[in-house]
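ARCHIVE CARD
CATEGORY: sequence design from structure
SOURCE FIELD: tokenized fold
FIELD CONTENT:
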């Protein structure tokens, strides 16, 4: 009985992992149309450049090349939206904050 439960749990975990990988590469997202710099590493993405001690040079370079809304790569190739347009940030944070979804860690 316990062996079949363990087998079922392993099968579900492996299936979920395979589905996540296939979905990431086969199904597009809205962020695919936003320009951004290539990542240096699949594991760290652009985070090592973004949070470096000389990171302001990276911020200036991507702002000059890609504009004020940029797609960055995070851990394990996850796409993240990087916004530093004052008007867009005003809409997201102040004016229309009820429209934008906030995660539980952000609220806590």
């Amino acid at each position: 009985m316990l062996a079949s439960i363990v087998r079922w749990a392993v099968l579900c975990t492996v299936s979920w992992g395979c589905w996540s990988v296939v979905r990431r590469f086969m199904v597009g997202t809205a962020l695919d149309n936003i320009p951004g710099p290539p990542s240096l590493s699949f594991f760290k993405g652009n985070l090592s450049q973004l949070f470096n001690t000389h990171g302001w040079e990276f911020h200036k370079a991507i702002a000059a090349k890609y504009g004020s809304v940029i797609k960055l790569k995070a851990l394990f190739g996850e796409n993240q939206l990087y916004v530093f347009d004052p008007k867009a940030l005003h809409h997201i944070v102040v004016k229309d904050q009820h429209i934008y979804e906030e995660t539980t860690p952000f609220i806590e």
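CARD ANNOTATION: The helical segments are 2-26, 47-50, 55-66, 86-95, 104-107. The chain has two domains: 1-28, 34-107.
SHELF: design records, drawer C
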